[in-house]
Amino acid sequence: VEVKGAPAAGEFKPESQTVTYVYQQQGTVTVRYVDTDDKELAEPITLTGGVNEPYQTEPEEISGYKFVEVKGAPATGEFKPESQTVTYVYQQQGTVTVRYVDTEDKELAKPITLTGGVNEPYQTEPEEISGYKFVEVKGAPAAGEFKAESQTVTYVYQQQGTVTVRYVDTEDKELAKPITLTGGVNEPYQTEPKEISGYKFVEVKGAPAAGEFKAESQTVTYVYQQQGTVTVRYVDTEDKELAKPITLTGGVNEPYQTEPKEISGYKFVEVKGAPATGEFKPESQTVTYVYQQQGTVTVRYVDMDDKELAKPITLTGGVNEPYDTAQKEFSGYKFVEVKGGGTSHRRV
Questions:
Q1: Which of 4, 150, 292, 313 could bond 20 through an S-S bridge, CB–CB 3.0 to 4.6 Å?
Q2: What's the CATH number where 173 sits?
Q3: What is the spatial distance between Cα 335 and Cα 101, in angstroms, rounded to a whole number?
Q4: Is the pLDDT of residue 161 over 50?
Q5: How does residue 49 score in pLDDT terms, banded at 50, 70 and 90?
Q6: Same domain assignment for residues 154 and 178
Q7: Residue 78 pLDDT exceeds 50
Q8: Which segments constitute the MucBP domain (predicted)?
Q9: Alpha-carbon gap, residue 44 to 203, rounded angstroms
């Protein structure tokens, strides 16, 4: 590295001269790039320098591999008389691409790529995608190990359709809370009317009661008509029931019709309450048919031996109402008395 004393080239002199060649001991550092099995991934390089002088090494970028550690001599240090080796160790990397597609393999979200050491575990999960439902995983498993070759996890989603079911009256006023059905597009759906007190189902509007889910939202509307009731009573003048009441039901504002019944021993006299004919209303109505109890008086015409002289006649009238009878003239007979009714009237 240098010459000391007399110059390396010159002239002889009377006095003795000394040319001294001074040398610096050299050290070598070999830099290796290997995988975890010590297999070389790149050509080694050798650095040379004076003992005790510094050296500097760096890892290289190696496609498909990730630097994990340095073995042997340190990455930076000083040359030594003995040879040194710096070993950069790399782990082989695997990639897992995660795709999100519909049943036609159309991408629904941007794919993501996971990278990790071969044989190390990976984990993937489905994403929430509006309007779609996750149905299956295809390709590589959702969770597994990275491999030397690239892998692809494909999350498959089915497009979802919604059917809203409404329950309204004829004025489109909601009678019950709507419900929403969700299902895969082209899959069947089924709806049914509800029992709603005071209302009668009359028709379906909008989407059909049963059909298939579609990409666009659908609405099934069940329409109900408000129902009114008319109770028909049959009573005597003391409001005592003479026959079992009947109840008529019909749509509000629709007509109703009632009639009196024939009740043995009673005569219809009037209607009270709601009219005999009218329209159903939201509130309950009562039609009351009032009857008067009837009494009968049979009038007989007989001789002294109780032999009939003429056909009896029967009088009918309301209980406690007056009745009147009269004697008849019979040829060859003379009226003598009235019998029955707890009294006897003799003509003198």
A1: 4
A2: 3.10.20.320
A3: 116
A4: yes
A5: very high
A6: no
A7: yes
A8: 6-24, 28-91, 95-158, 162-225, 229-292, 296-341
A9: 86
